[in-house]
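Standup notes, structure subgroup. Blocker cleared on the zinc ion input:
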Amino acid sequence: MSPANPKHILAAPAWPYANGPRHIGHVSGFAIPSDMFSRYQRMAGNKVLMVSGTDEHGTPITVQADKEGISPREVADRYNEVIATDLANLGISYDLFTRTTTRNHYAVTQEIFSTLLRNGYIFPKATLGAISPSTGRTLPDRYIEGTCPICGYPSARGDQCDNCGNQLDPTDLINPRSRINGETPLFVEQEHYFLDLPAFTEVLGAWLQSKSGQWRPNVLKFSLNLLDDLRPRAITRDLDWGVPVPLDGWRDRPDKKIYVWFDAVIGYLSASIEWARRSGDPDAWRAWWNDPSAESYYFMGKDNITFHAEIWPAMLLGYAGRGSKGGTPGPFGILNLPTEVVSSEYLTMEGRKFSSSRQVVIYVRDFLDRYDVDALRYYVAVAGPENQDTDFTWSEFVRRNNDELVATWGNLVNRAVSFAARNIGSIPGPGELTAADHALLETSRQAFDSVGEHLSRSRFKFAINEAMHAVAEANKYFSEQAPWKLRESDPARMRTILHVALQAVDDAKTMLTPFLPRSSQAVYEMLGGTGSWSGLPRIETVDEEGGPSYPVITGSYDSSFRWATRPIAAGTPLAVPVPLFAKLDQSVVDEEIARLAGNE
Ligand SMILES: [Zn+2]
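Run returned:
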C-alpha cells in the first residue's frame, strides 16, 4: 500500500562531535530515534533522505591535537572513522553520513555566510580580542584560561567552560592568562562578524507558535523561552581550525575562522547536496529543501535545541530574506524550516550523568561487542529518554531483554515456527476461520494503524508498546488454541491455527522492523523470505576530486515492502529456527556494575 502522494521527508539526526567515541546516552538521543522514524516512513511509502556526519571543527579537537602533538585533522580523521563504524553497526540507515571537513561543506557554508551578509543579517562589530603582549600575535581562544564567571571553575577556556558547559568570551574570564606562557593577555579592539538574531524575533515567534500541539511540549516551551533573550551572536572566532571567512582580507588569515556552531548546522544542507551529487543528480536535494510540501525532522538531545529551534531556523529565514531586514534568497533558493525539532531528554546511567572523563560510560562499541544491537534499540524505544530524563540501569536492561525480547517476542516466533516446521515442514494453508482467528488477525491489522500513527509522530514508547501488545495477543492465542493437542484429533484445525499464528508473527515482524531491523530480517528469512527485508547500512570510502579519501555511511533502504499485512504463502518450506535473542544471565548486572566501579 503506497500513499497516492508520497511525501519527501528529510530526517536530520544531530552531528556527533569528532573528539571521541560516542556512548549509548548520545545515540539514544539522535541516531536511534531518527532511524526508527525513517525506517517507518520509508515503509509507509514516503521518500526519506537521512543525512548527517561528524562535526569536526572547534576548540576541543584542537586542544586534543595539541595534547597529542598531531594535527586537528588527524584527530578528526580518527574519530570520524570510529563514530561512522559505530553508527553503521547500530544499523542507522543514513543515506549519507559524511563530515564537516569536506570541500563541499566549506563551499556551502561560505555561500550561506555570504548571502546572510548581503541580506544584512550578518554584520561586523568591533570587539575585544586577545593578543600575546610578548609576541604581539593573536592568542586563540583555547590558549586563554581563567576562572569561569558563572560557576567559578578555575580552568575555564576562552570559548567555553568545560565544567558548566556555558559558552564564554575570553573577556568574560576572571584572571585570564595565556596557557602558553602564563602571561596576562592584552585585549585589543578587533573586528568579528555577528549573526543578527534579534532581526528574527517576530518571524521565529510566529513560526514556533504555529507548532503548538505538534511538537513535544518540553521542546516547544524551551524554544519559545529562547525568544525572550535573542542577542547578536559572534560567528567568527580567533581560531586556526575551521571554515575560512569568505571575505577579502579574511579568507587567507590563519587566525580567523567561522565559528564551529555556525558551520555545523549547515551540515544538514551540505550533506544533502553531497548526497545528490553522489547519486548522479546534483539537484536531487531540492525536492527535500525547496518544495514547501516536503517535511523535515531534526533529532537531538535537549542540549542542542537552541541550535535547531532558534539559530538554524534564523539562518534559513535570513538566507531567504524573511527576517525584519528583508532581502532576497541566494542560489539555494528558499529553504524549508524544520517541520519538527524532535528533542530527547537526557539518559543517565545507574543514577549518574554519563561522563567520559569520569568513566561513567558505556561506549557504543563496547556495548555491541557484548550485547545484541536490537536489545539496545529495543531498550531505547521502550525505556529511552523520549519525554523525561531517564536512567539506564543494567538490571532493567537484562530484565527487558529476558522478559520482553526473549520470553515474549522471541518465544512467539520460536514456538510457532518450530511447531509448524516439526509437524508440517512448511507454512500450512488455512481452513475455515473461527471468531478467535478473525479476532487475532484483526488485532494485527489495527496495530498497523496505531503503531504507524505513533511512529509518524516520533512517539516511540507508545509505538513499541502497541506492537508488543499485538505480540502478547498472539502468544495468548497460541496458548489458548493449543495446536499441539490437535495433532491426532483435528489436524485440519491445527493447520488453520498455525496459519493464523504464523500470519501474526509475520505481521509483528513487519511492525517491529523500524525498531529491530536485524532480528526482523531473521524472522523474514525464517518464514521463507529471501534477499533484503530491512536494509542495513554499509561504509564506503569516497573522495572529492583530488582530495583525501574518507569513509561515509550509505545504503539502499527503499524496497517494495510496505507498512501493511502481507499474506503468507501456504507451502513455503520452514526450518526449525535458531533463537532470535540470547537470554542474559543475571551476572551481567554484577559484571557491568563492577566494570563501572573499576573505571573510577
Ligand atoms: Zn563554568
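Discussed briefly. The pocket of zinc ion is lined by residues 148, 150-151, 153, 156, 161, 163-164, 166 (CB under 6 Å).
Next: hand off to the docking folks.
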